[in-house]
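Marked as duplicate of an earlier ticket. Keeping the data here for the record.
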Amino acid sequence: MEKQATKGFEHVRRLGVLIGGSGLIGGALMHYFKTKTGDELDILSPNSKKLSLREPEDILSYFRRYRPDFIINTAIASIDSDPKMAYEVNYLGSINLARVALALKIPYIHFSSAAIMPNGENLAEDDVLPLTEGMSNYAKSKLMSEITLRQMHEEQGLDYTIIRLGVVYGKHDHKIQGFHRLLFSVMNQAMPVLFTRRGVMHSYTHSKKLPPFVHHILDHRQEFSGETYNFVDPSPVGLAELILTIRSYLELSRPKNIYLPYPLARAGRLVVEQIVKGLCLLGIEARLPGELMFMENFYKTQTLSAEKLARSSFRDPYPGFSVFSKLPDMIEYYLTRWEHLNLISFYNKDFFDPQHQAEVFLRNPQELLEKMVKDPFPGLDQ
């Protein structure tokens, strides 16, 4: 650790290693630690070429070189990964990182998922599914990680904290998964009716709220060591209400306000799976979104209790944020991004380009040139 003088006193500058920094959660953490913590923290975020969770030698050599003060693991294999990938990345990789943290006697922050929890309302941290062979590869590997981390804490003294997430939403998700897959489906008018039933509720997690929490638990290890926290917005969200709100913002006519029964949805998924297999046999690359393996969850309520989090010393820096309050901002961001990538055909410039810069660029570039020269770069003159 590096000591630095600041206004007459010395403080310790901590070095952390973040695994999975290119994802939605990891990216939010990287941005926060680089812009909000000043000289207090340094973060390294090696990609898989520098440090592969599937190679113990990579892990050992990397941590022998840098010897960080804490480890944060947000890396996950795709939710539809095969057993080998899910085991090596989600389970073995996470436990190898925990072993390094134990050897270095440093905190280990591990991100987990509500996929390991049953359906139901107001689920507490202890409400998890039994470990069975019939679980999905993703849920099984995440549950095994939590079980092993708890054992390492009880038997060997591992200093860990598990952060268990609901449906994560926020900007800068470049993989189009989870909530953003739902947003993409509605935006691209690929959802003709509602693939859910009335009254189904889920818990959501805003990615921007996570970095301040991680920072807080790193500074308060005595309180948070050996603990698991459901990190979700206080109020659950109705899936049908969310879909129809997205539709309303986009001024679309689909999906229709018709609830498709689960047996029909499941039968339709099986038909599409057979079509995809047929295309693959013809040499045409095609695959279903991994989220479809959790289609049953679209029809069942799962809400997580945030009571333990509320009782802790952490205070939400964005208490007014919810998936509904952030929808206009997210729709503008993702609609613009996906349209520019030619992923969708629908685009309403008047609503989502209020400054009409794209139109000016097309029709009057000289105006933009003059404005660019006159306007100072924001922030540098302050």
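See parent ticket for discussion. The two ends are 33 Å apart (CA to CA).
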